[in-house]
Amino acid sequence: MLHWLLSRRRRRPDAALRICWLCRGDYVVPVDSRIADEEHWWLRLRCGQCGSGREVTITNDDAQRYDRELGVGMAVIERVVRDIDRESMEREVETLIAALRHDLVDASDFAE
Q1: Whole-angstrom Cα distance, residue 3 to residue 21?
Q2: What is the C-alpha to C-alpha distance for residues 9 and 45, in angstroms, rounded to an integer?
Q3: SS3 assignment, position 14
Q4: Strands (DSSP E) along the chain, which ranges?
């Protein structure tokens, strides 16, 4: 246990921001933030996996690194959502094409 605590102290503070202290999930995001002073930010963090929350005060440098880290995560999520949307649309188009080929739908199905 002591080794784990010591290893956490050597890590950059911003690296631990995205890890939930309760469930150890990598789903922690800021839900509120404020400038604490000229050198620090106050953040309210929430884990998207277990719902636990905590408040932290971090340096401006740590806040910038955390913001970049969140940006990378958002880019991954956006790419996955685009892929899922594209695959869904492809399936819908394939279904429509098959229905048209088998005369299951015609123009009157789309009239108001």
Answers
A1: 16
A2: 19
A3: helix
A4: 28-37, 40-47, 53-59
Which DSSP string do the residues of 45-58 spell out, in sequence order? EEETTT--EEEEEE
- Determine the longest span between alpha carbons in the chain, in angstroms: 72
Q: CA-CA distance, 41 to 20, in Å (whole number)?
A: 19
33 forms bridges with which residues in the sheet?
43
Structure tokens at 91: 């399936």
Token pair 């955390």: residue? 66
CB 28 within 8 A of CB 44: no
The pTM is what?
0.66
Closest among 8, 20, 55 to 34, alpha carbons compared: 55
pLDDT digit string (tens) for the chain, length 112 residues: 444 444 444 445 555 898 999 999 988 999 999 999 999 999 999 999 999 999 999 999 999 999 999 999 899 999 999 999 999 999 999 999 999 999 998 888 888 7
